[in-house]
Amino acid sequence: MSGGTSTGLFADNLKGVLLAVVSSAFIGASFIVKKKGLKRAGATGSRAGVGGYGYLKEPLWWIGMVTMIVGEIANFVAYMFAPAVLVTPLGALSIIVSAVLAHFILKEKLQRMGVLGCLLCIVGSTIIVLHAPEEETPTSVNQIWELATQPAFLLYAASAVAVSLVLMLHCSPRYGQTNIMVYVGICSVIGSLTVMSIKAVGIAIKLTIEGINQAGYFQTWIFAMVAVSCIITQLNYLNKALDTFNTAMVSPIYYAMFTTLTILASAIMFKDWSGQSASSIASEICGFITVLSGTTVLHSTRDPEPASAADLYTPLSPQIYWHIQENGEVSVNKEEDLLSRDFVAIVRQDYFV
Predict the structure, then answer these.
(1) Which helix (H) or strand (E) holds 332?
(2) What is the pTM of this model?
């Protein structure tokens, strides 16, 4: 390899690394700015965590949104200069940025075990990325369409959609406010499909700029519609996750799950795992286990949300009083019955279920 070529590759890699670092800084900061906007919007209306969309009228949320878009654009351009093995692991820097900013700006304390969980997520995701199989770069939208319609990837896509629907329709109304894996899981699963469709759109744009028009292919527009639908879904549930849970938890778990599922989707779509050495496969499995361990540690160190006095003491309708008589018998009286000293009020049914 000539000195000029070597110098050119080094310069390209340096540009990619710098862009990836800038991208991580913008994305990490966007989590904080957006949550600040979500809190401000929730103080005057319905919170995003319970289905409100008042944050769309909050300028601070839009500043965070623009910041995230700038970060994503920088990340996209970084892949044009440097290989994924350099760019993708640097996305973990956004976790550190968001955790530090959340500590100082949002006053969200990151416990010691939470720090350990962050490190495990970062290390595990880095191991997966470093040992992830190389993918063949598609040269046309038609080629990506053939890869996307192969049985293996269709099975993955169908499974991803099915899991997302279960999380959205069944788990979200019941456990979304108490289990961080619901909202973040939806973002991560849908996100893996987003990357695949965005990649197809990106190739179409690149080929069109080079003079090979891809706008006439219906596949281009299908990929574009899938990308837009997935991005909207991701943003919706990411807002709910940020509005409901600690930012220092959302960022690393989202990063770990999103990176893992994206690599999995890419490997299935492009058949990159065929021909890998046993050591590489073993390293990837260790990475998966490490990420899972970090996610578990982070989940276990979550600070419980303080319940409001109104939530604890507002009785259900109708309010029920249990009357313990002198002979030991128990009778039930409704709200309109007169309350005496030997009545015990049960204002929350989950206290005795």
Answers:
(1) strand 330-334
(2) 0.65
Report CA torsion sign: 229, 234, 240, 243: negative
Kindly state the helix (H) or strand (E) to which residue 346 belongs, with its residue range.
Answer: strand 343-346
**Using alpha carbons only, how large is the chain's radius of gyration in Å?**
25
Please give the Cα distance from 210 to 197 (Å, whole number): 20
- Distance of alpha carbon 117 from alpha carbon 125, whole angstroms: 12
> How far is it, in rounded angstroms, from Cα 305 to Cα 176?
13
Ordered per-residue pLDDT tens for the chain, 353 residues: 555 555 655 676 677 778 888 998 899 899 889 888 888 887 776 665 656 677 788 888 899 999 999 998 888 777 666 655 567 667 777 777 777 788 778 877 777 887 887 788 788 777 877 776 655 566 788 888 998 999 999 999 999 999 999 999 999 999 999 999 999 999 999 988 987 888 778 778 778 887 888 888 899 999 999 989 999 999 899 888 988 888 767 877 887 788 788 778 877 887 766 777 888 778 878 887 887 787 677 656 655 544 443 344 334 444 444 444 555 554 555 444 444 444 343 333 333 33
The residue whose two tokens read 């197809």 is 200
